[in-house]
């Protein structure tokens, strides 16, 4: 494999959804800053997605891993240079807030290791389809009649690649650079599934805390009087 200097490359390692049976997956979309939304994908929505995802497109589904190691997959995406965003994961679009990354021609960006998890609105215990749960359902009433977990929005955690993670292929190892997030943006739900923030409930609470910290501190009466030159009446 030879790297195309006119393209940008993104590498990301993804574990299983909720550390259970199903593999996590990501959708990368080109972001149109002028429109303030995801750029129009080609082919349009509804087109059959080929194995490995659409190539050289404004939206890429990470479906075919380049390397498999245990419960983790390493994906390599070849993209056109520009502003891209993590549009979603599995059945969820991160339309309420996701991070963008600016990709230059010839760049190789390592997003790191991504954990995809179910993000309940009130922090309930995750109800996931583990092997033990499926076996229990089969014993009690049959595999196909057992109750499946209800749909829940997905969110992701991202961490830098470590020594115990999947090594990058040699062609990328020397030139790959850690991801530098550009900004957080919102956009329409064009994936047609559930909606959440990229960082889930944690990101919402962090945003609320940041907004509260940025609010000006209310002035006390004494401070206001000093600034205005007013003098409080002396106590008798």
How would you explain this protein's 3D organization?
The protein has 236 residues and is of the alpha+beta class. The protein has four helices and 14 strands. It has helices spanning 131-141, 170-173, 200-214, 221-228; strands spanning 8-14, 26-32, 37-38, 59-61, 67-69, 72-79, 82-89, 92-93, 98-103, 108-118, 154-159, 177-178, 181-185, 194-195. Strands 2, 3, 4, 7, 8, 9, 13 and 14 form an eight-stranded mixed sheet that branches. Strands 1, 5, 6, 10, 11 and 12 form a six-stranded mixed sheet that branches. The chain is globular, with a radius of gyration of 23 Å.
Secondary-structure element pattern, one letter each = EEEEEEEEEEHEHEEEHH
Percentage of residues in helical conformation = 10-25%
Kindly report the average pLDDT value.
81
User: How many distinct beta strands?
Assistant: 14
Q: Helix- and strand-based class?
A: alpha+beta
SS field, number of helical segments: 4
Strand share of the residues? 25-35%
What is the distance, rounded to the nearest whole angstrom, between the alpha carbons of the first and last residues? 89 Å
Quick recap:
This protein is an alpha+beta fold and 236 residues long.
Keywords for this structure?
14 strands; alpha+beta; eight-stranded mixed sheet; disordered C terminus; 236 residues; globular; six-stranded mixed sheet
Secondary structure: elements and pairs:
Blueprint: E1 8-14, E2 26-32, E3 37-38, E4 59-61, E5 67-69, E6 72-79, E7 82-89, E8 92-93, E9 98-103, E10 108-118, H1 131-141, E11 154-159, H2 170-173, E12 177-178, E13 181-185, E14 194-195, H3 200-214, H4 221-228
Parallel strand pairs: 1-10, 8-14, 10-12
Antiparallel strand pairs: 1-6, 2-3, 2-4, 2-7, 5-6, 7-8, 7-9, 9-13, 10-11
């Amino acid at each position: 494999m030879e790297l195309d200097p006119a393209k940008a490359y993104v590498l990301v390692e993804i574990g299983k959804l909720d550390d259970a049976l199903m593999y996590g997956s990501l959708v990368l979309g080109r972001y149109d800053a002028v429109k303030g939304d995801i750029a129009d994908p080609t082919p349009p929505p509804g087109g059959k997605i080929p194995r490995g995802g659409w190539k050289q497109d404004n939206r890429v589904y990470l479906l075919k891993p380049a390397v498999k190691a245990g419960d983790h997959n390493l994906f390599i995406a070849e993209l056109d240079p520009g502003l891209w965003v993590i549009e979603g994961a599995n059945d969820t679009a991160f339309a309420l807030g996701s991070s963008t990354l600016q990709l230059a021609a010839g760049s190789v960006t390592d997003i790191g290791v991504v954990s995809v998890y179910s993000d309940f609105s009130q922090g309930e215990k995750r109800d996931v389809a583990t092997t033990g749960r499926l076996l229990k359902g089969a014993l009690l009433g049959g595999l196909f009649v057992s109750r499946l977990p209800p749909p829940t929005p997905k969110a992701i955690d991202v961490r830098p690649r470590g020594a115990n993670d999947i090594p990058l292929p040699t062609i990328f190892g020397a030139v790959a650079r850690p991801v530098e997030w550009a900004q957080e943006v919102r956009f329409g739900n064009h994936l047609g599934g559930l909606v959440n923030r990229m960082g889930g409930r944690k990101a919402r609470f962090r945003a609320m805390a940041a907004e509260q910290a940025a609010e000006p501190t209310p002035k006390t009466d004494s401070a206001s009087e000093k600034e205005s030159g007013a003098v409080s009446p002396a106590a008798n």
